[in-house]
Design a protein that fits this description.
Elements (H helix, E strand, L loop, with lengths): L2 E5 L3 H12 L3 E5 L50 H14 L6 E2 L3 E7 L5 E7 L2 E7 L1 E4 L6 E2 L6 E3 L2 E4 L13 E5 L3 H11 L4 E5 L6 E2 L2 E2 L2 E2 H7 L5 H16 L20 E2 L3 H6 L3 E4 L2 E6 L1 E4 L4 E3 L2 E4 L3 E2 L31 E3 L4 E2 L3 H16 L9 H10 L14 E2 L1 H9 L16
Parallel strand pairs: 1-2, 1-7, 2-3, 7-23, 9-18, 10-21, 11-12, 11-21, 12-17, 13-16, 24-25
Antiparallel strand pairs: 4-5, 5-6, 8-22, 14-15, 18-19, 19-20
Helix pairs in contact: 1-7, 7-9
Length: about 425
């Protein structure tokens, strides 16, 4: 029986452990934190990249559940982080994963051995341990090492990355600048605007803002319901629908997007436009330089702030792997099915993609493919380099060239590709029914 090391007990790691265990493989999960859930395990510890106090998921429960474990019927359309932690804990308990997990343990190094196995060095309570495994499954996520921006000058107020943002209360009656145009930036801007003296958000460009509910349905339910419409026409119709629902960005205090919908990650937020139109949030251009408590912007304007929160994304890094093995810290991420490197056939990356949807169901399917590979029921094509290059050159949705868009996939299309590697009629693309 092959023994497999799974790094991380977040949603992707749990899915990997469950499916490897189902395949009859020996499984050891190594988790740095004290419990399962990964980023969805809320913690006051600023060293842990957890969600913040009021976070809710931005994909609906209908497209965010594992195939093998539906979400409870009583969950709302967009569950909170506490409900999701309950769900992941229930998943781990139901499938007997908890005894397999070494909690509070840091992976220090993973070294390939001459016999193609792996030596994994871990540290717990100051004690270093080495273990050997037949395969390595990396599920440590890509939202843990903050990408902190650098600007000319110095800011003398509080400057923090969204990695360290836990709740809005400390920013009561303050002047807050949030830097970033992603969903986290918008969520933080909305939350701080409830208590701050003024919240501004700095965007390099305009973005498409989509409410969480469109025509009475969760946005992803509506979107997946019209996948039969050709992509170009579907996106065109969505753009027109957003103009009807929100109006033009420039008319509501937001910069106009310079790209079509889908070419950046969509901002799924029902409150951003509300707070902008009530004057609680103002949108500023990119930061030019810092001077004490003054922030100068690229349009020549400036503002005074007590705190800056940089929601500027994360680096993709695996510090326990030598960079000669893999290095995804810059440029593209060359993996077949966003999972397999061309150079090693017993190394898997599960959940290292950013879908226009939810990560976990795709990670679950990746795990099923990996399990079949390790048990000899599936073999990848021989020329992985050519296939990887084809995937990189033909993305599901062509996006603008920025670091945060290097691992984007279309949720439904990516799941469909993974399902072609599994037995026929394995699972449908329909929403998972609730318990």
């Amino acid at each position: 029986m092959k023994n497999v090391c799974v790094i991380g007990a977040g949603p992707s790691g749990l899915a990997a452990a469950k499916n490897l265990l189902d395949a009859g493989l020996g499984v050891t999960v190594i988790e740095r934190q004290s419990g399962v859930g990964g980023n969805w395990r809320f913690s006051e510890d600023v060293g842990h990249s957890s969600v913040f106090e009021t976070t809710h998921i931005i994909s609906s429960k209908f497209y965010s559940a594992f195939i093998d474990y539906p979400m409870p019927a009583h969950f709302p359309d967009y569950p909170s982080h506490a409900q999701l932690l309950e769900y992941f804990t229930g998943y781990a308990t139901h499938f007997g994963l908890l005894p397999l997990i070494q909690f509070g343990t840091l992976v220090q190094a993973c070294e390939p051995l001459p016999d193609e196995r792996w030596r994994v060095t871990t540290v717990k309570d100051g004690l270093e341990v080495m273990q050997e495994f037949d395969a390595l499954v990396v599920c440590n996520g890509h939202h843990w090492k903050p990408r902190v921006p650098a600007y000319p000058g110095e800011f003398t107020g509080e400057f923090l990355h969204s990695h360290s943002f836990k709740r809005a209360a400390p920013f009561a009656n303050q002047r807050v600048l949030v830097i970033g145009g992603g969903n986290s930036a918008c969520d933080i801007a909305v939350e701080t605007s409830r208590v701050s003296k003024q919240t501004d958000v700095s965007w390099r460009r305009g973005y498409w803002v989509v409410p969480k509910f469109v025509l009475g349905k969760p946005a992803d339910v509506l979107s997946n319901g019209v996948k039969w419409i050709p992509k170009a026409l579907r996106f065109f119709l969505f753009e027109k629908l957003m103009l009807i629902l929100n109006g033009r960005n420039r008319d509501i205090g937001l910069p106009e997007p310079d790209h079509h919908i889908g070419q950046t990650h969509i901002l799924l937020n029902s409150e951003l436009v509300y707070f902008v139109r009530h004057g609680k949030i103002r949108v500023k251009p990119d930061v030019a330089r810092l001077e004490g408590r003054t922030v100068h912007f690229t349009d020549g304007s400036h503002g005074e702030y007590d705190a800056i929160i940089a929601a500027t994304g994360y680096w993709i890094e695996h510090p326990f792997l030598d960079k000669k093995i893999v290095d995804f810290s810059s440029g593209s991420v060359p993996l077949y099915l966003r999972m397999l490197p061309a150079t090693r056939r017993n190394l898997y990356f599960i959940g290292l993609f950013q879908p226009l949807g939810c990560i976990w169901p795709g990670a679950e399917l990746q795990s099923k493919v990996a399990a079949r590979h390790l048990t000899g029921q599936w073999s990848p094509p021989e020329d992985l380099n050519a296939l990887i290059q084809h995937e990189l050159e033909h993305p599901d949705v062509p996006q603008i060239d920025t670091p945060r868009h290097t691992i984007t996939v279309d949720d439904a299309l990516f799941r469909a590709r993974l399902k072609t590697q599994l037995p026929a009629n394995f699972v449908s693309l329909e929403p998972v029914s609730a318990l």
